[in-house]
């Protein structure tokens, strides 16, 4: 039996012990749940409180333990004794530095005894004597597993990554952090197996879902994941540096750190639905199911679902902060709908009183002078209408005595206010307007021109109105940018108060009692309410932590929308300016600053590209230097020895055949996924070209350039790069995104007309 086999066998023994213990815990939890159910019958206050506590604990355990983990146990560190000899609650030494006498000398060479071995896994497991069998990866004691480097090893002598599937250990890979040291474990020398656990992880084929990286988080990433929440954590880093992965692991870490504070209250904002579905599996694999909401920008508000795409020119108009002013006018203007009644006739004190169109317009103008949201101004409009009718009736002149006048006025109000002619009129003349109705109203170019006067240019008005014409009254045809406009309108219009519907509760939350816990916002709001706007149409606005992925792409209007969801929150923001498809970073930065307010900021930079092999990164870097002269690309850690392929077709007509053959070639070359990235307007066409390729099936995806954000494939075919670059003002940066999606192979297929073909 060689060293590797022996080490695998030893880890297998440990894993068996862990699973035996887990099974015991599952039985224990099941018993507790059943026992608690029995106690419902008893019903004394003491028994009930105890029951709740038990159900909470047991439910939490069960739901997590029942998760069948791919690799429950994935790491191990062998450590020198700690400096102060103090052990924490999990039984591990708390000190990061070794004791002064940890390293001795033998024949002039340093030698040390391993004082402690910790296994790291997805959840913490203690044995019956409370000795840790597995330390949760998020626990402080696990940090050295990620942080130790040969330059600053701390107490770590050997770091081991354990690869397992289900209950079977498949392999181990070791790193020696103090290679100069002769380390002894229970009297014999510490064996070392292989190297390059990280490289092995990076070389694996990619599926349709992102995997977690718990087993190989790198030191600079770990710092971000565990950063204190006292400041906004701002992370920049080039493509493939793990920003998305790190952001998701941070969500899991925060839940571990303070479950009560963050339960159900973490929002992850993602640019596209494609990236949402790509990343959705990561948190469940970390044992955190259902606690974190991952939402695309186009479905951030309840009930809206973007299904359309805006041309860059239109996106720019819709995204710009100036839209807030246009919407403010539109919200107030839309109340004056074309079909509104032009005259009000009532009978008061037996006489007919009437307001004509002009008089009504004056009342409306006055009512709109109030500062409240339009839908909350109806009581004011009603009052002003009654005033106008009272004046019109000639009654004021008839009463000299103020006391009589007041009494008569009251009777007058009573007389009219319940009259159907009046109530029907009010409902039609000051209807409750929905955000969608205003957006649809803005498709009328003439009305829009009025609302956008001196804010947008006539040409912009035309473009905007035309694009909004595709939005239906039922909400189909919305783009992600429209959704931010709807959110702005929601605030401008306001929602009249109605009896609150009970909030939907997660079944798991009910089981565990988490649903009964208060959120952070609830506790920090002085009046005990979550937030003033929370009741608005059931919209959730009180997140305790907001994570923004691909933050460089949020438009000013989108920052406003996201900002509303994190008024009380702590924040993590990750992005890469070099991949921005928004043409005016300064304007977006201003709205981002507004969303974050006076919170402190702490910046981190990730510098290593874990996705692209160096050969592919070099091509992308060529484009980066043109897109953003002076920008420093991340360092690629891997070489494959395979150069990217460049192909050109002479005529546009030949593109179809060439695309098919290049895609087939890539499908044959890699075991996993192939992404074909094309200009947005070509998506459907190219998808048609490749639909019947043998082998394609689940493995091949055709993407518009703006949809490729954040995704990755084993191989990428970038089609007509010139078209992608010319598509928008930020086109070269969009092309940079396209070129950085592949983990193994890249083919660039250009037409003779392409002007911005990258290197080669
Ligand atoms: N420490 C790590 N160990 C193993 N794999 C890693 C590590 N860090 C990142 N990766 C992998 O590198 C790839 C890129 O990660 P991720 O998508 O998070 O990068 P990103 O910075 O968000 O990229 P982009 O800016 O292009 O969206 C993923 O496949 C991820 O799993």
Automatic annotation (TrEMBL):
<dbReference type="GO" id="GO:0004386">
    <property type="term" value="F:helicase activity"/>
</dbReference>
<dbReference type="InterPro" id="IPR027417">
    <property type="entry name" value="P-loop_NTPase"/>
</dbReference>
<dbReference type="InterPro" id="IPR000212">
    <property type="entry name" value="DNA_helicase_UvrD/REP"/>
</dbReference>
<keyword id="KW-0378">Hydrolase</keyword>
<feature type="domain" description="UvrD-like helicase ATP-binding">
    <location>
        <begin position="216"/>
        <end position="613"/>
    </location>
</feature>
<feature type="binding site">
    <location>
        <begin position="237"/>
        <end position="244"/>
    </location>
    <ligand>
        <name>ATP</name>
    </ligand>
</feature>
<dbReference type="Pfam" id="PF13245">
    <property type="entry name" value="AAA_19"/>
</dbReference>
<keyword id="KW-0547">Nucleotide-binding</keyword>
<keyword id="KW-0347">Helicase</keyword>
<keyword id="KW-0067">ATP-binding</keyword>
<dbReference type="InterPro" id="IPR014016">
    <property type="entry name" value="UvrD-like_ATP-bd"/>
</dbReference>
<protein>
    <submittedName>
        <fullName>Helicase</fullName>
    </submittedName>
</protein>
